[in-house]
Amino acid sequence: MAGKVYLVGAGPGDPGLLTLKGLEAIKEADCIIYDFLANSRLLEHAKAGVETIYVGKKGSQKTIEQEEINRLIIEKAKKGKTVVRLKGGDPFIFGRGGEEAEELSAAGIAFEIVPGVTSAIAAPAYAGIPLTHRDLSSAVTFITGQENPLKERTNIAWDRLSTGRGTLVFLMGWKSLPLITKKLLENGWPPSTPVALIRWGTMTKQVSCAGTLDNIIGLAKRLDLKPPVITVVGDVVNLRERLNWFESKPLFGKRILVTRALEQAGDFTRVLEKEGAEPISFPTIKTVAPQSWKPVDRAIKRLSTYDWAIFTSVNGVKYFFDRLYKLGLDVRELKGVKICAVGPMTAKAVERLGIKVDLTPKEFKAEGLLDALGKRSIKGKKFLLARATKAREIIPDEIKRLGGRIHIVPAYRTVKPSKEAAGLKEMITSGGVDVVTFTSASTVTNFAAAFKKSELPGLLKDCKVACIGPITAEAARKYGLSVDIMPNDYTIPALTRAMAEYFKRSHDK
Length: 509
Hints:
Elements: E1 4-9, H1 20-28, E2 31-34, E3 51-54, E4 57-58, E5 61-62, H2 66-78, E6 82-87, H3 97-106, E7 110-114, H4 119-126, E8 140-144, H5 161-164, E9 167-171, H6 177-186, E10 194-199, E11 207-212, H7 216-223, E12 229-233, H8 240-243, E13 255-258, H9 262-274, E14 278-281, E15 286-288, H10 294-301, E16 308-311, H11 314-326, E17 338-341, H12 344-351, H13 366-374, E18 382-388, H14 394-401, E19 405-415, H15 422-429, E20 435-438, H16 441-449, H17 456-459, E21 464-467, H18 470-478, H19 492-508
Parallel strand pairs: 1-6, 1-7, 2-3, 2-6, 8-9, 13-14, 13-20, 16-17, 16-18, 18-19, 20-21
Antiparallel strand pairs: 4-5, 9-12, 10-11, 10-12, 15-19
Helix pairs in contact: 11-12, 13-14, 16-18
């Protein structure tokens, strides 16, 4: 029995602009066939074992012809698979979705169209340009910048585009920009007509510029713009100066290296993107299960004997409770045990499990925990500390000194992921990174291990170094690094705010 094909609009680039129906289709897909302009991060929502096939076209570099794409979609569907054809923007707006749907219909394959947010609308919106405005434009026309080269004559009625004087939006028209400006000028558009060019619209690497029909080509050359670019023509472009909300974000355009573990990098990445930054992931740590679960299992079996359970990280919470559930138990085993979580994110991880946190120290580090516990009676109390295999000994040492008993269980361990550092080194030396962030002392150590120790200060001399707290900063300084940014509160949101404030001060000087 044949499967089904979903022609899904992936949106303009910002993964947050994917529709709910598109997300549902991706989650159900057995096979995803995706384009160059479909953000590859959307594939993270796919189920395990999904087949992914890249068929993108970048400029003149074609990986696969359209006829072959059509054949591939039909072939996968005939094998009974649920196929998602993931296309940038909207599949029916200059996306050749109509051609693919025709082929599916002819082959008797069931299909659905899932519209997407077209870049024709989204890119101008992210550049602060409303395509219609009661005082400036009551009509908008979408025009392709790349007609079928096999057609004998153009379908663009250049003379008629001059009559309405609404807004014109040209998609995929970068190479045709000289022709577009020439034709508009020849057909009566004034040389002073406002024009905007937007590259990578809606993404954190968005670049835009505004000029007029008679100077836009020169401006584009000075900026060295390259595809993909959308061209907007009309008086609404003048509103950009007042409405340019996206490019005004505090970290817009800053390329920030995230050295956090891959499992935790997502939260940091989302916070950075929200402030307009372009995160670059280079995980220096990977968390894995401990080499033996026996210490954790023994602790779980006697949970009721502890007065306190201490969690110092989200990872500790995750691995400990995953093991608890694996043994067929649940949170009722913690009845009577008080919970201490170091840091708000760790506390949230515990609370998501339906467990009340009894103590979260005001200072989000080991010393803060000890200060908070010091106000309570520690002597004679029994503590369980679920943490990484290797960690600072200040908590257990101080609890013992104060008369408490502590049982340390290695709930997880950190290893160095195998990731090539040569490409990153080239990116840094070419000025492609603005900030390198460290969220723990171990991220500093593992990052430094990817390079020669003597070359590290020189490698990062033109980058800003941001550390989440004093312990991490101390580790960075041991490698000869100058710490430029550190928040007062040792959290990811606070670190992001500190970076934003740093660049605002630099801009205001």
